[in-house]
Every structure is written in C-alpha cells, then in structure tokens.
Amino acid sequence: MSDSSLFSFMHDVSQDLVMIGEEIERKLYTDPFSVLVKARIYSEQLMKLIWRQEKLTEMFDISQIERLQKLSRMGIYNDDIFQKFNQIRRLGNVAAHESRPTVTVDKAIYAHRMLYDVSVWYQEVYGSVDFQPPEYRTPTAPSGIDQGKLQDIVQQTIQQVLQQELAKLGARRMDAEEITETDGDDQTVRVISLTEYLTNKKLEIIDNRKLGGALWIVGGWELNEILFPLKKMKIYFRFTSKGGRATKKRPAWYLLGKQESDPVVTIDAKTGEIILEEET
Known about the structure:
The protein has helices at 15-27, 32-53, 64-73, 79-97, 105-126, 147-170, 194-200, 224-227, and strands spanning 179-182, 188-193, 204-207, 215-218, 237-240, 252-255, 264-268. The chain is of the alpha+beta class. It folds into two domains: 6-170, no CATH class; 179-279, no CATH class. It has a four-stranded antiparallel sheet with strand order 3-4-6-5, with helices on one face. Strands 1-2-7 form a three-stranded antiparallel sheet. The longest helix has 24 residues, at 147-170.
C-alpha cells in the first residue's frame, strides 16, 4: 500500500478501500473499463460502511440505489452527495452494458473525482474532527501515452466537475453580505450568512472549519425546529446525541459537507424567520 495514492487518507476506514483506490489509479489511463467496475465496488462498500455507522439493519438483496434512497430520506446527506454516489453507480452500469473499447478515459477520470468527493464527505461526517482532506489530484500517467491529449482530457474532465459545482452554488451563493430587497407589499428580505443566522438564534456555535473540522451547534433534538427549515435552502445538519470531541460529548448538531465559506440564508427582516425557497 502506497502513501502516494490519493485514497491513502482512507486507511483508518478500510484497507480494502485503499487497495481498490490504488488499483483504480494504476488502471486509470490504460483500462477505464476496469476503473468504472472498481469504482462501483468501492462506492458500494463505502455505502455499506455508512449503513453500519447509522446502525441500520443489514438486508439481503438490497440494491445500491435502494440504500442511497433510504439514506437520502433519512437526511444523512444532501442531494449533492446523493448525486455523486448515483453517478458512480451509473458509470458502473455503463461498464456493465458497453463493450470495453467504448469506455473512455474521461469517464474513468470523472469516476475517480467522484470517489474522492464521497470519500472526503465520509471522513468529514464520520471521521476525526481534525480530518484535513488532501488536495485532489489525478495520478501520473504512464509513459507511452500522448501527454498532450491526456492533459486535454484531464482538464476537460476537471472543468466539467467544477462547472457542475459552480452551477449548484451559483443558484444560491452570494457574498455573505447583507442584501435587501423589497417586494410589492414592502416586505423587506435579507440575505445573511449561516453563522449570523445561528448567532441571531442565540445558539452555541463551535466552528472548527478553518482547522479542517466541522461546524457544530450544541443542543438537543429540540433544535430541529430551528435547523430543519434550513433544508429548504439545501443546508443540512445532523443530530448526534453523543456529540463529538469538539462539543465535549454534549448532544449537538453538525453541518454536513465542507463549506469554504458560509452558505447564505434568506430571512424576513422583520421577523428574522427563514423565507422558504418556494416563497421567494
């Protein structure tokens, strides 16, 4: 097992996953068909680990999509993570139904990136609060491959991923500055940062994101009345009765996914309450 593998950060989760990740990287440019098959195996094993973390009863003959959908309904992850798992599953189906020569390197690179994303998410949610993900990188291509053409493929694939991420963020991300709008009824709408919203609710916040950790809200299940409405803006918190080291094991909620900057929240300036997406 090599520390040079991108997936070596999963060694404390599963040695099998690290080994599959290494095999994917060895074959990324030479056998994309096998990469898609292995990527699906990796994601299915990771999904089973999530299943166990959530203490769900193991069921025979349950499919990957059924696991994905159940965990989604439980609010374990947001739609972005669901879609990444599902894209890996679909790419595995592509490999199962297409001939080996028709599976191209760009699909393999795309699967590699999606595996990285869901693996980082797993560590952020279930791993150490001190976890710091490695920067994403594609493995070095073996000699004998047209480096110019390969570089174009890599850049196009990475650009595709970035465009998808920006499209999702662009629909709702703004600078975390206060913005006011007035509708026909003179109702003032404010867009504020998530941190400001939580502070206004007088919640105890422990923000370790700059240290590679999570954003925690200390409190019991009763905080769902404040945090669940945020789901309408695709901001997801998950409750754990045991808390974490950051909360000194006190019951708490933590923000799913890693945010480089605060998400934004749209509120009624008069009441301070969230204005749901379908109302704005």
